[in-house]
From TrEMBL:
This is XdhC/CoxF family protein. It comes from Phyllobacterium phragmitis. It comes from the Bacteria. Residues 77-218 form the XdhC Rossmann domain. InterPro entries: MoCofactor_Util/Proc, XdhC_Rossmann_dom. Transmembrane segments: none annotated.
């Protein structure tokens, strides 16, 4: 790998952007590409599939072989609310390979004692997300039931094309949420991306069961659909 490619890969990793090192195995030429970049004839489909799956592979087209080396950011799970469900979700998310963090301005809940092994921010989401913006490789789960805390990150998650957006609450609660989000300029299609009530429909009752349902839905969203790379959801 040449120095230019290495620098490009490191920059993409730092910015949490998906890239691929495309190498012509016959000639040894290589270049770093991003989703949507123009590629040589016959490679478009294979490159798109590789970005969606995250799996590197060798592809042959036109009598030439290419190595598609995919570099995707690790999936991130941002949970809004340092609640009992979050406590149960934290160890599950770690086992599943998610970089989880919790945001909750209520300092009585967001404490080191309750979340000893999790990155947490006892601050308002507006402040945290300015420094740690959401992206297509992030899932957001809003669990506080408090619109003053949940609504802003839900809107930001939609605009950032997060691969999963979910919110805890009854259908009545969500109907009120929809009205508030519409008032901010989001469309019905954009708001329709929110999974509410949150989690797979497994009849979950306890915080631990709800955490299982939430993580299952997050994994399903990532593996079945993947990040919507290159798309913009700006209102």
């Amino acid at each position: 790998m040449d120095l230019g490619s290495l620098k490009a890969l490191n920059a993409a990793r730092h910015a949490r952007r998906a890239v691929m090192l495309l190498t012509d195995l016959g000639e040894g030429r290589e270049r770093v590409i991003a989703p949507g970049d123009a590629v040589e004839g016959g490679l478009d489909s294979a490159v798109g599939d590789a970005f969606r799956s995250g799996k590197s592979r060798v592809v042959e087209t036109g009598g030439r072989k290419f190595f598609l080396n995919v570099h995707l950011p690790p999936p991130r799970l941002v949970v809004i609310g340092a609640v009992h469900v979050s406590q149960a979700l934290a160890p599950m998310a770690e086992i599943a390979g998610y970089d989880m963090e919790i945001i909750d301005p209520r300092t009585a809940f967001a404490t080191q004692e309750r979340f000893p092994d999790v990155r947490f921010h006892a601050e308002w989401p507006e402040d945290v997300l300015k420094a740690r913006p959401l992206d297509a490789f992030t899932a957001v789960a809003a669990l506080t039931h408090d619109p003053k805390i949940d609504d802003y990150p839900l809107r930001e998650a939609i605009l950032a094309d997060c691969f999963y957006v979910g919110a805890l609450g009854s259908r009545k609660t969500h109907a009120a949420r929809v009205s508030r989000l519409k008032a901010t300029g989001l469309s019905d299609a954009q708001i329709g991306r929110i999974h509410a009530p949150i989690g797979l429909d497994i009849g979950a009752a306890s915080p631990a069961e709800i955490a299982v349902a939430v993580l299952g839905e997050v994994i399903s969203a990532l593996r079945k659909h993947g990040p919507e790379q290159g798309k913009t959801g700006k209102a």
